[in-house]
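Blinded run. Sample ID left blank on purpose so nobody reads anything into the name before looking at the predicted structure. Input follows.
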Amino acid sequence: MTLTPSVVTKNYQHILALAFAVKEINENPELLPNVTLGFHIYDSYFIARGTYHGTMLLSSTPERFVPNYKCDLQNNLIAVIGGLDPLTSLHMATVLDIYKIPQHCDRNLENMKGHEEFGNTDNLYRWTWIGLLTMDLENGERFVQMVVPMFSSSGICFAFIERVPKLTLDTELKDVLQQCAKIHDKVMGSTANVLVAYGESYSMVFVRWFPYLSEQEYMAINPKGLVWIMTAQMELTSMVYQRTWDTQIIHGALSFAIPSNKVPGFHQFLEHINPSTTKGDYFIRDFWQQAFACVFPSTVAGEVDGDVCTGEEKLAVLPEPFFEMSMTGHSYSIYNAVYAVAHAVHSMFSSRGRHQRMVDQSLHHILRGISFNNSAGDKISFNVKGEIDSGYDVINWIVSSNQSFHKVKVGRMDPQHPSEQMFTINEDALTWHSWFNQTRPLSVCSESCRPGSSKKVKEGKPFCCYDCIPCPEGKISDQKDVNDCYICLDQTYPNKKRDFCILKDVSFLSYEEPLGISLAFFALSFSVVTALVLGTFLKHHDTPIVIANNRGLTYTLLISLLLCFLCALLFIDRPKKVTCLLRQAVFAIIFSVAVSCVLAKTMTVVLAFMATKPGSKIRKWLGKRLSSSIVLCCSLIQAGTCATWLATSPPFPDTDMHSVTEEILLECNEGSVTMLYIALGYLGFLAIISFTVAFFARRLPDSFNEAKFITFSMLVFCSVWLSFVPTYLSTKGKYMVAVEIFSMLASSGGLLGCIFSPKCYIILLRPELNNREQLMRKNERTK
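Blinded prediction complete.
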């Protein structure tokens, strides 16, 4: 079974718009005076062969079809108005270009300029998951190839792309219904709520095949509404057999429309149209029968089955899908095209006379430069491409409960405006499909990822379908639907929700915080104690306990310990170039002097005991020269190490942005960490030697033998610095500095306490033990 030939009744207005424009021009004494315009209209039947045939008829003798030959010179063809659809105009141009005949093809129908504005609409309403419906034609495929990459670049992807079969007289109805049923199931089964439709002027005839059920039946089977977005050439058209079909499917649709205006006299012209008063119109009887669902008795043999056409029916009673009384955008374009040709011919006749050869050669050029105001008050002119830059209206399609249909202008797309003003839409004026309960529809494959997360595309799915994953540690996202989280600037760090960055605090060991104050207090306290011990020893410098253990070494040791305590102050407060340069090197050198003094004291005790043996040659090594040499040599080695360090890779103030998430660490970069550990390792080396020697000398019979106290002091020293290394490496910022200061104070305090507290006890609290007689008596008891 094939489709019964039917007239697309709505298109009949285009014929009437053409006739009305010609009528006005012929009645206007100021435009083409003494010239009568005529016209021929041929139906293309929406097929290429019908278009080619009709085009050849335009350029040949009416009585006899002879291609490329026309003998009636009084009715030469001067211009052609193309068809509604791009392919029709394209087929006509193939033939007419040969004869240089001007053609008006409405650029809204012919090119695809402006379709990228769909992307703006989709982004405006979060329509990123849409369907695409096109006619199964060449220009439909070209539209698909154009918009798919364009929409993808705007973050929009397609749930499906379906192609509606082409309508021809040879189309099998069963095949059409089967394909439409499959497309319907695909559309309604999709999660996309927005459907972009690109088709020919008659495409809505096929769209209305989707449901040909009542609204109740349709919603029971398909509990879902759609937002249709349609291109400019698509109109709501119906065939006679679709008169009672429901139109709720397109309620709330949006479409681009060719701008139109109210043309004076056109409505009255339509009111007087009927088959009896219209002469030479071979379309009106077919239109009348299809539009009013009646039959003229003269067109059928036998009895009439159904209503009889009287010819007195009124166009105004027809529903809009069949006919509109106001001039549509397509009819308005035809109306303006006729006037453009008339003004061009008038201009040419006025300047050059009526010579036909001039008309054929110059009409193209004059049309491009023509400019006039039509009867509706609109200025009509062409750009350099021969196009009318009128832009588009955005129309909202409203279907009432009684199936009446009307269009509401809700926006505008004008390429003449700046990009930020090119597309405007009044959201408050929009009416959506009832399924959305008048709330703004959403059409997304996946819900938006909130700030603090990022999108992860689902494998095998379009990029619009994704899962939301939390930002990894150290990264944030402060917007919805980001593809990847990003790292905060160096001066900031992520909050707990990882949706914004917080300014980092600047951190260094300061005198204004409890930790800095405490360490400074202990450093000064130890310094004062050391100074008091030194004062005590100076005051009692002639006593045996002071003399017995080399006063020079004792004073040097106390002074070096005093300076070691004061060195701790170089590590507190904001790092500066001078403090960074000096603090490690100065402490390493001063503390090496202290440990060297301890080593020299130990060596002196051992050698002194060995020298008491008969015939010992060690006696000649005793004296200040040995102890001074030990201190000087050991200290110079450390000084040389530090000098090399400062000369090759000196420390400097630095900023650590990354070690601690929430803080900017102001610190001293040690330059060469290797040299730092060499200097500290050397101190450890001296301490181990001192500990070893003192350990073996701890039981020597001497009343004032310091070896046992030195052993304890070196044990404390080694314990402190052995625990210092891992603790130092595991901390950052001011706490790392605090660990080093604590190690300095603890090791220096260990030397001070273990070596000098017994001496101070005797000097200050037991002075009776600090005499030579007591010393000799004790030595005798020991022996």
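Unblinding after everyone has recorded impressions. The chain has a mean pLDDT of 81.
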